Amino acid sequence: KNEVEQSPQNLTAQEGEFITINCSYSVGISALHWLQQHPGGGIVSLFMLSSGKKKHGRLIATINIQEKHSSLHITASHPRDSAVYICAISGGGADGLTFGKGTHLIIQP
Amino acid sequence: NAGVTQTPKFQVLKTGQSMTLQCAQDMNHNSMYWYRQDPGMGLRLIYYSASEGTTDKGEVPNGYNVSRLNKREFSLRLESAAPSQTSVYFCASSISRRGTLGGYTFGSGTRLTVV
Q: Are A36 and A83 in contact (CB under 8 A)?
């Protein structure tokens, strides 16, 4: 049973395009997290959401608690945005985070 | 500019060898975690420590042991390494259990290969 599902698994886009990555989950949560991992790199926390919407630079994250769904948007995408984006939930009855499998994003110049 | 520090960054072991992965945080976080990351799978929890003096099993604890040495340090030990333990290991910390306050901070990872 996969409590966190992400789509798409892989996404290739051209520089400047608007990017959307989706995350659905099946249990009650206290927060949803969006994380970024560059190839061979560590994991960086982008957002922690419990309701509504957050924005940081060109990144926007939204969550709909009733529908158990979150989206991560990237505006004016750039090749340096190429990374794996990971959705994770906390407070779903377990300690720590429960992770999705990640979305591998490539932005071509 | 520390946060969560993991050592070593890379390690190659022979089957049956033992080793300890070290993790330290300087943010005064209460909870610490060890995860493994394998291709095609999400990160999975190995062990966690909700607070100093406590440790608990996560989803995939077999073959591992942990020690919460003090509030700062949480180590992961492989007593007899197996090829199935080839993975990238991440340590993480959070100020509160379940990370509801302030989120999570991750280390840079340890890439372990068991041959």
A: yes
Q: pLDDT digit string (tens) for A91-109? A: 766 678 899 999 999 999 9
Contact list, A4 vs chain B (CB under 8 Å): 42
C-beta of residue A72 within 8 angstroms of C-beta of residue A20: yes
Interval A28-82: pLDDT, tens: 888 999 999 998 888 999 999 999 999 999 999 999 999 999 999 999 999 999 9
Q: DSSP per residue over B37-104, as a string?
A: E-TTS--EEEEEESSTT--EE-S--TTEEEEE-SSSBEEEEESS--GGG-EEEEEEEESSGGGTTT-E
Q: Are strands A83-90 and A97-99 parallel, antiparallel or unpaired?
A: antiparallel
Rg (CA), chain A: 13
Burial A62-78 (b: 16+ CB within 10 A, else e): bbeeeebebbbbbeebe
Binary contact (A44, B33; C-beta < 8 A) = no
Residue B11 at interface with chain A, using a CB cutoff of 8 Å: no
